[in-house]
Amino acid sequence: MTEFTDQSIADTEDTRPQPCLAGREPIEVEVKANKSYWWCSCGQSKKQPFCDGSHKGSHFSPLEWVAEKNGKVAFCTCKQTPNQPLCDGTHCQFNP
Ligand code: FES
Fold first, then answer.
1. What is the pLDDT of residues 17-70, one digit of tens each?
2. Are 51 and 38 in contact (CB under 8 A)?
3. Nearest 5°: phi and psi at 18?
4. Contacts with 51 (C-beta within 8 Å, 6 or more apart), sequence order
5. Which of 50, 59, 91, 95 gets the most CB atoms within 10 Å of its CB?
6. Cα(65)–Cα(19) distance, rounded to whole angstroms?
7. Are 26 and 76 in contact, with CB atoms under 8 Å apart?
8. pTM of the prediction?
9. Ligand 1 centroid – CA 96 distance (Å)
10. How many whole angstroms from 81 Cα to the centroid of ligand 1?
11. Which atom of ligand 1 is least distant from the CA of 79?
């Protein structure tokens, strides 16, 4: 089984910049309808799961997501979800 580090999951042959693994589980956030949320895509933000500007100078940009309704949402912190910015369970591959 592949061993992943907290620093990066970039040790692949894919040469595109890879985000840092910011977490191994989603973070649940109470969201408000029609409000914009800026999801950290680089994994460097200290305000996970949201952007704090740490991506500046990198190839990454935050992703805007607008809540359709009030309620709890699970935002991805592993940064590997194909359903950005929401957790889809992909993080399970990074947990022992
Ligand atoms: S935290 Fe990334 S898919 Fe769940």
1. 899 999 999 999 999 999 999 999 999 999 999 999 999 999 999 999 999 999
2. yes
3. -115, 145
4. 38, 39, 40, 45, 62
5. 91
6. 18
7. yes
8. 0.84
9. 14
10. 6
11. 2
